[in-house]
Amino acid sequence: MQKLFCVVILLLYLPAIWANLEDDILAAHNDLRVLHKVAPLRLNSQMSKEAAAHAKILAEKEDLIHSDSTAYGENLCYTTFPPTTCVKSWYDEINKFDFAKPELSKSTTHFTQIIWKTTTDLGVGSAKSADGMDYVVVRYKPPGNIDGQLQENVVPRFLKRGGNRRTKSENVWILIIPLLLVVLSKLL
Length: 188
Known about the structure:
43% of the residues lie in helices and 13% in strands. The protein has one domain (18-155): CATH 3.40.33.10. The chain is built from 7 helices and 4 strands. By secondary structure, it is an alpha+beta fold.
């Protein structure tokens, strides 16, 4: 019975792993922006509240639908992996972007928004759908992806990609999963 209690406590603790979501997403963005010698973003709590509200709507509908606001840029994602993987997948659009002839393209707007030079603020929200998917909404202010402004706002990478630094959430998972497996193996 005591072992079962420990497992229940551990499982109740798991949602707290995402408690650092905002910091992790912000750090993931800034780690990429530094590669382009672009100023770091700062977290905007009001934008995060609004992003969380929109993420809740998306999770309820189980659909990715951009908001109608033009006050900010917005990247959307759903995942069962740590939400920072969304930032990596958005940034990987760099492989489709032509710095010699920059133009707006639906296949690269996630990437260009991440490194858009004049963007200063970031808001992050997440919600879990009924089927267990995390719906992630990241908002940017001022918005990027403005036609005619790509040349000065989307600059090539100056630095090679650094080491893959793990987020706090990923470090917690690395510690908890083996512990959970040990506890479960003793119960079975």
